[in-house]
């Protein structure tokens, strides 16, 4: 059993800090929501590294919103629902497609500079989009530009206090109400931060897998602490593997954006053959899960560890202008995007599921909200449509503020203790434990799954549960406990869902089964596993 709290403490004996709104995490969701909240409230932003460290920074493709006259919310809605493979919440998707353009205007007001062509926004098209609706910045550095603009604004805001290098160990709850969080300072001191509203913007869990486009900090903290606090966790079996991450000796799994294929790049196996026509009528622009599995099939058939992406039909000037970040990164490893075929392979990229919220970002725990990749709003269903993640963060960030405006101040301080009487310290080094977990997930819960593999993986993961009986005190120990929580939930959800849909593929159940499985898999620490109806948000 996963304990309620990771460490022993008595809240009465801890130093206390009070704030109106506590934002945990510093990607687009955290930065944007903090800035919006600071218009009326005192905000404390807690980030375990710094403002510039988040998944947002690595987002290349852009942000999807209906801007063009040729486009419409109805088109965007349809594309999102098709990609989501029957598990999207239509009401959440409606919110996204109708409120996305206003969110983009907010980003521009906050200083984000999107690329222009002839005075108009330079819109591009990505996989599974029927229209050009992707705004981008500096070619392929959209996330970095958004983080630059928002972090500058955050630092200048007198109503926002920033705690870098602080780790949120657990949320403090009493009778189903969130009162804030237990936070550890860089020096190891524990502090109770009491907040009228607590917003989780902690990102995803890419570090569950050995190969990921996510940074080291993506350890599923928000999902795990919300689960321990009593929130519902939904759809975590659906993990998106980006089809084209750089796969080259000595290089990290750097994202080669979907937009490269959107601009006409083709995929070839190591024999030089273009292969996507054997798998899908949309070829290289098929939904990500289909492209990723096709690449794995080709790798298996040709006994290779990669395939190639070929963008050599474009001029060097065009390649440099449109994809300067990718071009320069590849060049560091002696690869020229304009003249070389670039070796790529799938890597864990995005978690469609997360902490279940309503249409205003609130979880089942009162005063606890979730925004961005950590949340499960119902927008992404079984497979996220490219560039909808940044839109989702700003749309639901705006909505969370509407709900916070209705909250009355918290007058009561809970008398909470975390008493687990832990005595021993973790014996095996955490770095070894983490690598073992990542190998288990890659082998048994990756792109292709089966009951036999998932059962084996789940059993192997359960052997690591002793971490919860140990005295934890370091950030990497908390992170591993959180990763283990997410890994157990993910493998169990994948084992339960006996069908293939979106980012979840079962070799023993290769077909989608709407009759039985058009529903959500939902976990709760107290109530166990339940089911959620579509649109039950």
Automatic annotation (TrEMBL):
Protein's recorded name: L-aspartate oxidase
Active site: 288 (proton acceptor)
Record's catalysed reaction(s): L-aspartate + O2 = iminosuccinate + H2O2
Residue span(s) of domain FAD-dependent oxidoreductase 2 FAD-binding: 20-390
Function: Catalyzes the oxidation of L-aspartate to iminoaspartate.
The keyword Phosphoprotein is annotated on this UniProt entry: no
Subcellular locations according to the entry: Cytoplasm
SUPFAM superfamilies registered for this protein in UniProt: FAD/NAD(P)-binding domain, Succinate dehydrogenase/fumarate reductase flavoprotein C-terminal domain, Succinate dehydrogenase/fumarate reductase flavoprotein, catalytic domain
Pathway: Cofactor biosynthesis; NAD(+) biosynthesis; iminoaspartate from L-aspartate (oxidase route): step 1/1
EC numbers: 1.4.3.16
Family per similarity comment: Belongs to the FAD-dependent oxidoreductase 2 family. NadB subfamily.
Organismal lineage: Bacteria, Bacillati, Bacillota, Bacilli, Bacillales
Cellular component annotations (GO), alphabetically ordered: cytoplasm
Cross-referenced InterPro entries: FAD-dep_OxRdtase_2_FAD-bd (IPR003953), FAD/NAD-bd_sf (IPR036188), Fum_R/Succ_DH_flav-like_C_sf (IPR037099), Fum_Rdtase/Succ_DH_flav-like_C (IPR015939), NadB (IPR005288), Succ_DH/fumarate_Rdtase_cat_sf (IPR027477)
Cofactor: FAD
